[in-house]
Amino acid sequence: MTARILDGKAIAAALRARLAERVAALPYSPGLRVVRVGEDPASGVYVRNKDKAAKAAGYDSATIHLPAETTEAELLATIATLNADPVVDGILVQLPLPPRIRTEAAIAAVDPAKDVDGFHPLNAGRLAAGQPGLVPCTPRGVMHILAEAGVVLRGARAVVLGRSQIVGRPMAQLLLGADCTVTIAHSRTRDLPGECRRADILVAAVGRPEMVRADWVAPGVVVIDVGINRLPDGRLVGDVAFGEVAAVAGAITPVPGGVGPMTIACLLQNTLEAAIARRGAA
Ligand SMILES: NC(=O)C1=CN([C@@H]2O[C@H](COP(=O)(O)OP(=O)(O)OC[C@H]3O[C@@H](n4cnc5c(N)ncnc54)[C@H](OP(=O)(O)O)[C@@H]3O)[C@@H](O)[C@H]2O)C=CC1
Ligand SMILES: Nc1nc(=O)c2c([nH]1)NC[C@@H]1CN(c3ccc(C(=O)N[C@@H](CCC(=O)O)C(=O)O)cc3)C=[N+]21
């Protein structure tokens, strides 16, 4: 068997095109502000990609780049200004932040109604409680890929590798909400390969290059690779050993060109929804 490749790049492009049409029909441009602190090298590329995609789809997008020496109080003041600005619908504080700044403090400072990352504890709580709210972009993008691929979720055994606040936990919540039987595995899980082999749907979000091997997966499994790992030789690989796992799986997302582009498209989707909730659609 050789797996169907789930083309996240194409699915994301189609979603961005639909969002651009909806934005064009609005009497205003949804406002997105990305706050970047310091010079984390990977962040530069992501922040530019977000800004480019947002502008191309008709959003009012801007990046606020604060110096590495910015204090937590200064960052919170910047966020408060954006919270109060009526043309700003979505605020994203790019992670990681410099170690002097508490990530939880920055996340909690964002107005939950403008929290297009879906990281604020109020939105995380809404998701856990099954209430409507802003949902983290990467897990939302994964659900979109699964829907586009026609994967049946009800009753399926889903295994999520990783339990971070930004990917693993919200991913598990969304799959549970879609009636999967969900297992969350992590660094203290006793038998990782054994847990993975039980999966009909396997979502890998651990940040360990090519950790998931062919003998970890059952034939026909749907594999979603969230990992983005830069190797010393410059290559970008996922958390899944793509070549050997694709020989066993039923479907698989590539890296690059899988979940990454969906994250950006879903950021635009969240920003549009936040804008309509604040300002209406006409
Ligand atoms: N495609 C995209 O748009 C995005 C991609 N990413 C990528 O996804 C990956 C995960 O990101 P993120 O969730 O932020 O990472 P974190 O480092 O916050 O979390 C990693 C999780 O994986 C678990 N883990 C780490 N090592 C192992 C191991 N050897 N065996 C089992 N479990 C392990 C950790 O367990 P424990 O809790 O026990 O420590 C933790 O729960 C990264 O590669 C990141 O770059 C992230 C965001 C967006
Ligand atoms: N507040 C916050 N929100 C985030 O959503 C957030 C963040 N901080 N910090 C960093 C991570 C990572 N992330 C990615 C987004 C897009 C790609 C992406 O588009 N990747 C492409 C290209 C990758 C490349 O060529 O470098 C791909 O996978 O095909 C990847 C990773 C968002 N993150």
TrEMBL record:
One of its GO terms (cellular component) is cytosol. It catalyses: (6R)-5,10-methylene-5,6,7,8-tetrahydrofolate + NADP(+) = (6R)-5,10-methenyltetrahydrofolate + NADPH; (6R)-5,10-methenyltetrahydrofolate + H2O = (6R)-10-formyltetrahydrofolate + H(+). InterPro entries: Aminoacid_DH-like_N_sf, NAD(P)-bd_dom_sf, THF_DH/CycHdrlase, THF_DH/CycHdrlase_cat_dom, THF_DH/CycHdrlase_CS, THF_DH/CycHdrlase_NAD-bd_dom. It comes from the Bacteria. Pfam families: THF_DHG_CYH, THF_DHG_CYH_C. NCBIfam families: PRK10792.1, PRK14186.1, PRK14188.1. Homodimer. PANTHER family: C-1-TETRAHYDROFOLATE SYNTHASE, CYTOPLASMIC, C-1-TETRAHYDROFOLATE SYNTHASE, CYTOPLASMIC-RELATED. Belongs to the tetrahydrofolate dehydrogenase/cyclohydrolase family. This is Bifunctional protein FolD.
